Amino acid sequence: MKSQISNAMLLAIIINIVYAKAIGVTQGIIARQAGGDMWIVTIFSTLFGLLIMSLTVLIIKRTPEKNILEQTKLLVGKWGEKLIALLMFTFFLGAYGGIMITVVYHLMDYFLPEVPTYIFVALVTIVGVYGIMKGVEVIARLAVLGVFSIIVLNILLLLGSLDYFEIESFLPVLRNGFFNAVEVTKHHNADWAMATLMVAIILPMVKQKEKWMKYSTKALILGGGFILMWPILEVGVLSPEVAGQYIVACMQMARSAEIGLFVHRYELIMVIFFAISALIQVMMCLLCASISAKHIIGGNNLNFLLIPVAVILGVFGYWVVNDHIRAMDLLTYYWPRVAMPITFAVPIIVFLLGFIFKKKLTKGNLDAPS
To answer: pTM here?
Structure first.
């Protein structure tokens, strides 16, 4: 793959692909299952993300010109490549359902309840396809702007919430037990999995491979910090009991914030600054699903597959969000059971295959163009 983006752009994409869903529907689910420990769950999940991201970067650095699917083909042939690609496509298909829950319910439940669901799904998917057609470089530049928007949003929310913050809400710590907190991390782990599996596909597009580990680690730490502020404020301002009553907990948190006499409710401000991160999630999910589909069928033209993949993901996304109960049941009970095995299996299998067929990796690097 030709290098197209810088490591700083990669950092921005990683932060954006996790942020929107992690502060939205994920925190509501965690509040219902972990209560006041939701901020601890977020820390545990970030540490998990660091571990899997580091493993993923190490795998790609073995063959810097090849993504994880191309490396699998080098190691075990095209059928192994197709199997891993199918797992990756399944993951991004499911992840798109979660992204649609985040985007559609933000807009439909709080601003435009009378607009048909398919309008939201169709428009968001079309914008995602348009972004991919413009190229990864354009998406990456938009992600840099998205990081700026995230910082502004977090600062505004922090300033508007401090007067209502109650430290007593955090006690006792680990009130539901350490192992419960670890178990509940599966919901946030599925968000970080989007970042790690995306990196497994796009990392060869990034320049200066010697900086891959440094910038991916920075992205996880910064992204985790940006996200962590939300459960801390939700516990200290709303209380976990209140946060857990909402599908989109961050919107209720935004409603509770105010600055001065004139800016009392942040819903519109939040959506404005939140939108870029949500669009990056859509674009990168569509891109990674399309690349996975290309490796499944063995084609060479990514643009040819982009529209069919967008239709498949869009139809699935519509089916998910068209029923609130179905959407939350899928996201809460079924999606982690699908996402976690794929998240662990793909990097661990490819990592072990690299040890077993080390000579193939060496030969592949020698044959790769300099």
So the answer is: 0.93
